[in-house]
UniProtKB/TrEMBL annotation:
One GO-annotated biological process of the protein: plasma membrane tubulation
Gene3D superfamilies: Arfaptin homology (AH) domain/BAR domain, Phox-like domain, SH3 Domains
GO function terms (MF aspect): phosphatidylinositol binding
Protein name (record): PX-domain-containing protein
Cited Pfam families: BAR_3_WASP_bdg, PX, SH3_1
InterPro entries in UniProt: AH/BAR_dom_sf (IPR027267), PX_dom (IPR001683), PX_dom_sf (IPR036871), SH3-like_dom_sf (IPR036028), SH3_domain (IPR001452), Sorting_nexin_WASP-bd-dom (IPR019497)
Domain PX: 252-379
UniProt entry tagged with the keyword Coiled coil: no
Length: 711
């Protein structure tokens, strides 16, 4: 059954006020601590117990009635109501799904979830209808919450404001809970799926004007966005094919994040700017004419973005596409964020993030992604940014624009699929975490192999030159005394530097040069092991993060699927089945099943890419080693071996290192932690440790600091 869109509130930034002058609002208390919502509802009041009352002449609300029992927490200024209590809604929207409500029985003012009451101002009393006592009670459930009635009037909502400095507490919360959210409401509720299932979508969110200045988007502005001319189609309509699986509307394209550079702004200070290049092949209708690219040559669009711009993209996508699983944005960094290693790691994380967005069959044609990848003008970016930030959450309207064939899934198959999917993603997460740990050990082993090859080279060179190898903890060799060393120099090297006591011995000269070549080759092999562990294997280690936590990423999809399936079974099990509710449940289930299919396709592609790139890197690595070893082997065969006796031996460049072997190397660079890893705050803790160590390390007594030991 088709539904009509419903207009909702506009969320434009007030005229004359710059978007960046407004203060960011933290979402740390979302759903868990409602003090944020209370502050938004009463900005002029404090949170003291003496200032909780709202005067009657300040605001008059709409009549409402509680649907369920809700036991609020006094410390969070929440109301406790019983099902059927009369209420007065003072402010319907105060943020994070809460409303400011006055209880009719005692006049107490507090916060109540929007889904726990319904408006009664439009109800009409029938004199002949007898209403039985309302005895239904139900504890608040994260999986079944009935939405409220439609609101009356338009209200201005606060725009989404990205944070440019970041917050420490959200990361710390994720580190404690392994990336899990503290939101008390389930994804089934917050995504708008429950409201869609129970009430449909009788109205559509009202979109703000395209331009803040004049409310229109002229032709010149539209021409500045080149990516919008590729033919993205209607970005608000999503189609599910038989499977269920998302129907591809836009061909896939590749995105590169490259060429980071440090910039400085008088407002925000220093930041890193990245070049973002989109590569895609034009379609036939756009691949002709004077501006058409040659066959096989992808069209390139390069824009420049900083990390805060990625935050804008992620925030807008989360609000406009609540029914799909989006990858998490990389964590902010506070210490060493301009070091070469971190900038490269952040570049790789951002590239993997944006590539996963572009790979999703629905997210790749989102309007905000088109704007992010195609807006080349800085002026146009600043003009259109408030529009995308002020877009209201799609909510049930997202599911109202999902179209799928009738009878596209079976309830029993859907129930079995979600259980299997949940078990599978949990198993994949544990397995990949083990793989990441083992791969880190493999990289360390390559570093140890580099040391071993280097020591073998030093030992061979020490043998043929009679120069003692300096004592080292890893060698187990002590220095020879002076007398024995002099005996070897006089008795083991002749006048041409050959490993022989006879002067003019051509055979030993040939052998000495060949063995010296072998020693130098082993040094090159050691360098290859070291470089391979630091660069090639680090890239594979970083790539494993993108497949490390599928269960956390798709937990909302699983939760929504189970809740929708429960509502579907309840709707069809009634004596008179509710066909409309069942049909809307099928829409939600088609969406979640399509997301599972998307994960399946991406999992196959991801692991195939990671495995092939790892094998290609190993093959190239061993081929380089084989090439050098074969070159060293040819030094023992004619004609190279015979040519070694034509001239005296020249000292090796590595002889000077025999007194001080290069065995101490800097530690391997490790991948930046994933958002869902257990310790994403490692860089911050390391910075605190270094700072405390600098303060307490300089002791004149030469003793180690107690604070240093603690950290």
């Amino acid at each position: 059954m088709s539904t009509l869109p419903r207009a909702t509130k506009s969320t434009l930034t007030p005229a004359g006020v710059s978007f960046f002058e407004s203060r960011p609002v933290s979402d740390f208390d979302t759903g868990f601590n409602s003090s944020t919502a209370w502050t938004q509802a009463n900005p002029s009041t404090s949170l003291s117990d003496d200032e909780l009352e709202v005067e009657d002449d300040e605001e008059t609300g709409q009549a409402a009635r509680a649907l369920y029992h809700f036991e609020g927490k006094a410390e969070f200024r929440e109301l406790t109501v019983e099902a059927g209590d009369e209420l007065e809604v003072l402010r319907e929207e105060v943020g994070d799904g809460w409303s400011l409500v006055r209880a009719g029985k005692n006049g107490e003012v507090g916060l109540l979830p929007q889904t726990y009451y319904t408006f009664t101002s439009d109800f009409m009393t029938s004199p002949t209808l007898e209403i039985p006592p309302f005895e239904r009670r139900r504890e608040p459930s994260a999986q079944s919450i009935t939405p409220r009635g439609s609101p009356k009037g338009e209200k201005q909502a606060l725009p989404i404001i990205p944070q440019h400095t970041g917050e420490w507490f959200p990361s710390f919360r994720q580190s404690l809970l392994g990336g899990k959210s503290l939101n008390r409401f389930s994804t089934f509720v917050t995504s708008g799926a429950e409201e869609w299932v129970l009430k449909g979508c009788n109205s559509e969110p009202a979109l703000p004007p395209r331009s803040v200045e004049d409310g229109t988007l002229d032709e010149e502005d539209n021409e500045s966005n080149r990516l919008s001319r590729v033919g993205m189609g209607d970005a608000d309509q999503h189609f599910v094919d038989v499977g269920p699986a998302w129907k591809t509307k836009v061909p896939p394209f590749r995105v590169l994040v490259h060429s980071p550079s440090k910039r400085t702004s008088s407002l925000s200070g220093a930041y890193t700017l990245y070049s973002v290049t989109s590569l895609f092949h034009p379609t036939s209708e756009h691949g002709t004419g004077e501006d058409a690219s040659p066959p096989g040559s992808p069209m390139r669009i390069t824009v420049h973005r900083r990390f805060s711009h990625f935050v804008v993209l992620h925030t807008a996508l989360t609000r406009r596409l609540p029914g799909i699983a989006l990858p998490p944005l990389p964590e902010k960094q506070y210490a060493g964020r301009f070091s070469d290693e971190f900038v490269e790691a952040r570049r790789g994380d951002l590239e993997r993030y944006i590539c996963r967005i572009a790979r999703h069959p629905v997210a790749r044609y989102a309007e905000v992604l088109t704007f992010f990848l195609g807006c080349e003008s800085d002026l146009e970016w600043k003009r259109q940014l408030p529009y995308h930030l002020s877009l209201p959450p799609a909510g049930p309207a997202f599911y109202a624009h999902v179209f799928h064939p009738d009878f596209n899934l079976d309830a029993e198959d859907a129930a079995d699929a979600v259980e299997r999917f949940d078990v599978h993603t949990r198993g994949v997460g544990k397995g990949v975490q083990t793989l990441r740990n083992i791969f880190g050990q493999v990289r360390e082993a390559r570093l140890e192999m580099s040391k071993a090859e280097r020591m073998l080279s030093y030992a061979l060179l020490s043998l043929i030159t009679s120069k003692p190898l300096a004592s080292a903890p890893t060698t187990g060799i002590s220095e020879l005394d002076e007398e024995e060393g002099n005996f070897k120099v006089k008795g083991m090297l002749n006048d041409e530097g050959a490993w022989c006591w006879r002067d003019g011995c051509r055979d030993c000269l040939k052998l000495t040069k060949a063995m010296q070549k072998t020693s130098e080759t082993l040094q090159n092999v050691a360098d290859l092991y070291d470089d391979h562990a630091r660069r090639t294997q680090l890239a594979t280690h970083e790539a494993l993060k993108s497949v490390a936590h599928p269960s956390s990423m798709y937990s909302g999809i699983v939760e929504t699927h189970r809740s929708a399936l429960s509502r579907y079974n309840a709707a069809v099990a009634q004596p008179s089945p509710d066909e409309e509710v069942a049909a809307r449940c099928e829409t939600v289930l088609n969406t979640t099943m399509a997301e599972m299919e998307t994960y399946h396709a991406q999992k196959v592609e991801d692991f195939r890419t990671i495995a092939t790139e790892h094998l290609d890197g190993e093959i190239a690595f061993y081929e380089q080693i084989l090439g050098r070893l074969r070159a060293a082997r040819r030094a023992y065969d004619p004609p190279q071996y015979d040519q070694g006796g034509d001239s005296p031996r020249q000292p090796s460049m590595y002889e000077r290192e025999l007194e001080n072997p290069r065995l101490t190397v800097k530690p391997l660079s490790q991948p930046c932690p994933h958002v869902y890893d257990s310790a994403p705050m490692r860089p911050v803790s390391a910075a605190i440790q270094e700072g405390v160590g600098m303060i307490f390390r300089g002791s004149t007594l030469g003793r180690s600091s107690v604070f240093g030991k603690f950290w």
